[in-house]
Amino acid sequence: MNLIKDIKPALLIVLLSAGHFLFAQIDKKATKETKTLYENLKIISKKQILFGHQHALEYGHGWSNEPDKSDVKLVTGSHPAVVGIDFSDFSGRSKEQIEKAKENLRQNVISTYERGGITTVSWHFNNPASEGGFYYKEGISTASMALIKPGGSHHEQYKEILKTIADFAHSVKAKDGTLSPMIFRPFHEFDGGWFWWGKPYTSREDFIAVWQFTVSYLKDTLGVHNFIYAFSPDNQFADAKEYLERYPGDRYVDMLGMDDYGDFGRDGKYDFEAGLKKLKIFSDLAVKKKKLAAFTETGLESIPNPKWWTEVLLKTLKSEKLQLCYVLVWRNDITSPTHYYAPFPGQVSEADFIRFYNDPFTWFENDIKDIYRQKMKKLEKIR
């Protein structure tokens, strides 16, 4: 008996709306490699966790644009398993600048895919309706989510921006002709007030309308089938109800996440109990909804705590039977002596990071093989 087929349409609508049939990956036309990645990330999350670093291959502490280099590899011998990039330069720039930005990132994404690594994409989206960049600046920025939603004054402009993203998604072809999958994480930290899409400037209804349109337009109209869609607030929630306050629905999200620096040492403040509670909230929601979950951003700037990796991060990640497929720390600035979140040779936490790397629970790029080709059966480090 085909349970779905044999249910009367009216009853099926009721059951779907009540959540009796929960969605897994939302794009039924996703490429084979994207589907396999999704399945393997779910498998990994049950026993291990992947390590990620933002802008890992583009630049690092004191260097930029050097082939096959990352600060993480300099310390451990392996690139991070998850490499963060950003679509920030895909709008608000001249056509020439946008094309240059796309070309610079294209090879990064393809190379990561061909090595077996994973790309995740944040989007520091320059305000399409005012000056001020991606931050909200009083007297300069416009609260623009209402303007870019369907029917808004800047909706057509927003569609053109999404076409630029789709063009990039269609261009990241490996030597074998397959497209590189990416985890796309738009409108992150939306519960804060620092970005123009933040909660103080955007109604719940407008946020959800823009999110739903973005996903539908990319996959259904523009034919992007190599994205996994991630939903990630900051840490401004205390329970599942608050976490889901702006959730656009199971048909529009593949992955639940959270960005949390504040509970893990920012400004010298630690609240492990609060941080762990929040991780547990959305990890449990993801299990219930048959979605992925990830710690989409965290870190300790300058890493002054020499044992932060094992005594803070690893200890937390191993607690409460969390099911997170990856944890990503923020970038290492090229010139700043203090703005970095992963160690480099000689940094005070280097030895502890190597212990973190060697722990069987954490996986780096060297530990994953054929993650796009076949469903994983064995979960163990391969190096």
Automatic annotation (TrEMBL):
The keyword Hydrolase applies. It catalyses: Random hydrolysis of (1->4)-beta-D-mannosidic linkages in mannans, galactomannans and glucomannans. The keyword Mitochondrion does not apply. It is an enzyme of class 3 (hydrolase). The active site is at 189 (proton donor), 297 (nucleophile). Its main location: secreted. Belongs to the glycosyl hydrolase 26 family. Signal peptide: none annotated. Its EC number is 3.2.1.78. Keywords: Carbohydrate metabolism, Glycosidase, Hydrolase, Secreted. It is found in: Secreted. Residues 32-366 form the GH26 domain. PROSITE patterns: GH26. The lineage of its organism: Bacteria, Pseudomonadati, Bacteroidota, Flavobacteriia, Flavobacteriales. This is Mannan endo-1,4-beta-mannosidase.
